[in-house]
Design goal:
- InterPro entries: ATP_synth_OSCP/delta_N_sf, ATPase_OSCP/d_CS, ATPase_OSCP/dsu.
- This is ATP synthase subunit delta.
- Belongs to the ATPase delta chain family.
- GO terms for molecular function: proton-transporting ATP synthase activity, rotational mechanism.
- There is one protein chain.
- With 179 residues, this protein is an alpha+beta fold.
- The chain has two domains: 4-102, Peroxidase, domain 1 (Orthogonal Bundle); 107-178.
- Helices cover 56% and strands 16% of the residues.
- The protein is built from eight helices and four strands.
- It has helices at 4-21, 29-39, 42-49, 55-62, 71-83, 90-104, 120-133, 166-178, and strands spanning 107-114, 138-145, 152-157, 160-165.
- It has a four-stranded mixed sheet.
- β3 and β4 form a beta hairpin.
Length: 179
């Protein structure tokens, strides 16, 4: 199967479109969390991969997840996932949908990875720079440590990665020297 994020993107976008068009009872984050949790169950996976089961039975299983949305539309969405054999991508669909919801609400999730833990002053400086970079959005800052970076930072949000690490600079130099 193709990369799950690539497979999941159009389904997450469809959910966002549905959310934007619906006046009320819109799909929310909770619906996209419950479904992957159900699919993670070994028995559910066995049921969904059973070639003897009809698509309607599989949709019936997945639609047992309680939702506060238009049930007919939700079942149609689930039927599409089943028919196209995209149900394994539900976790990624949920993640992408939640990301899109946060963006629509003006929130940008940023993961900042450094070689050593940032002190309070460094965190403040990075947070300020990110808020300037993503003006008009609330920046939700998460931090990780990866000693393999040697020094510097790697900033990741959505499709954007800024690699200002020593490791990244060394790798770039190596690529330049090879070409």
């Amino acid at each position: 199967m193709a990369d799950l994020i690539t497979v999941a993107r159009p389904y997450a976008e469809a959910l966002m479109g549905w959310r934007k068009r619906a006046a009320r009872n819109r799909p929310g984050r909770m619906h996209c969390r419950r479904l992957p949790a159900m699919i993670a169950d070994v028995q559910a996976q066995a049921f969904l991969t059973d070639p003897e089961r009809r698509d309607a039975e599989k949709v019936s299983l997945l639609s047992a997840v309680p939702v506060a949305v238009d049930v007919k539309a939700w079942k149609a969405f689930l039927a599409l996932l089943i028919h196209n054999d995209r149900w394994p991508a539900t976790a990624e669909i949920g993640t992408l949908f939640a990301d899109a919801m946060r963006r629509a609400e003006g929130v940008v999730d940023v993961l900042v990875t450094s070689a050593i833990a940032l002190d309070a002053g460094q965190k403040t400086a990075v947070q300020s720079a990110l808020e300037r970079r993503f003006a008009g959005h609330k920046v939700r800052f998460r931090e990780a440590v990866d000693a393999a970076l040697i020094g510097g930072l790697v900033i990741h949000t959505g499709d954007l990665t800024i690699d200002a690490s020593v490791r990244g600079q060394v790798q770039q130099l190596a690529r330049t020297l090879r070409s």
